[in-house]
Specification:
There is one protein chain. The protein is α+β, with helices and mostly antiparallel strands. The chain has a single domain, classed as Beta Barrel (YmcC-like fold). 22% of the residues lie in helices and 49% in strands. It is built from 5 helices and 13 strands. Strands 1, 2, 3, 4, 5, 6, 7, 8, 9, 10, 11, 12 and 13 form a 13-stranded antiparallel β-sheet that branches. A hairpin with a 5-residue loop joins β4 and β5. α1 crosses α3. The longest helix is centred in the first third of the chain and has 15 residues. Keywords: Lipoprotein, Signal.
Length: 228
């Protein structure tokens, strides 16, 4: 099946990247002002700050106003660095989101399945046993297989045995999102590691807010849906 490309998202990110490469020309020509560029530049300043500041409501509001389509907020738990990701494409239920810095994350129903551009990336994951439990908001057991880029750029595989439990319903309000979701916890052990993923799953089976373990180098990512 061919990919469904969101051209508006690609165009918006492409424009921002072009302006970043030619920042003097984009910033000094009053006939070529791009308020989207201001947003990207503020994100650049944030990514270089120590410690990084959380995204302000003003940045989130501006991002929602100046983009179209699904929008996600990604944040690394270890250093709190964050980025806004627009949906770029979809292929058989797998959605790929991207930043203006050419980093991408692929998700299925809000569950991370791959990353690129972060270093030590998640190359692929087999969640065929646990994903139906998480999306279905049902308790149970399953296997999670994580394949990531390790030493000397070689792909390493980790296999986990996981237990999925379900908690209470909570309201989730972020950006343009306002839904009820159920707490779902996935606890996994294997290869001498223990990881715990926390999800808030809506009635459609999508995780709209989560803390997900990615790879040994990247640790946990916090993901938050701002617009579906």
């Amino acid at each position: 099946m061919a990919m469904t490309i969101r051209k508006s998202a690609m165009t918006r990110l492409g424009t921002a990247l072009t302006c970043l490469a030619l920042v003097a020309g984009c910033g000094n020509d009053p006939q070529n002002q791009n308020t989207g560029l201001d947003l990207i530049q503020e994100l650049v300043a944030n990514l270089s700050s120590e410690p990084p500041a959380p995204p302000s409501p003003q940045i989130i509001s501006q991002a929602l106003a100046e983009t179209e389509g699904p929008l996600e907020l990604f944040q690394r738990e270890d250093n709190q660095r964050w980025g806004l990701m627009l949906k770029l494409e979809e292929n058989r239920g797998y959605e790929t989101f991207g930043t203006a810095f050419r980093q991408t994350a692929t998700m299925r129903n809000g569950l991370l399945t791959a990353t690129r551009g972060f270093g030590g990336d998640l190359m692929s994951v087999d969640i065929s046993e646990v994903a139906p439990l998480i999306s279905g908001r049902k308790p149970g057991q399953g296997t999670r297989i994580v394949r990531f880029l390790g030493d000397e750029d070689k792909t390493t595989e980790l296999r986990f045995q996981c237990s999925v439990t379900v908690g209470q319903s909570v309201a989730v309000t972020s950006g343009a999102l306002d839904v009820m979701a159920r707490q779902v916890t996935e606890t996994c052990q294997g290869d001498g590691r223990e990881i715990t993923n926390n999800y808030l799953v809506d009635s459609n089976g999508r995780s709209v807010s989560a803390k997900q373990w990615v790879t040994p180098l990247n640790g946990y990512f916090l993901t938050q849906t701002l617009r579906q």
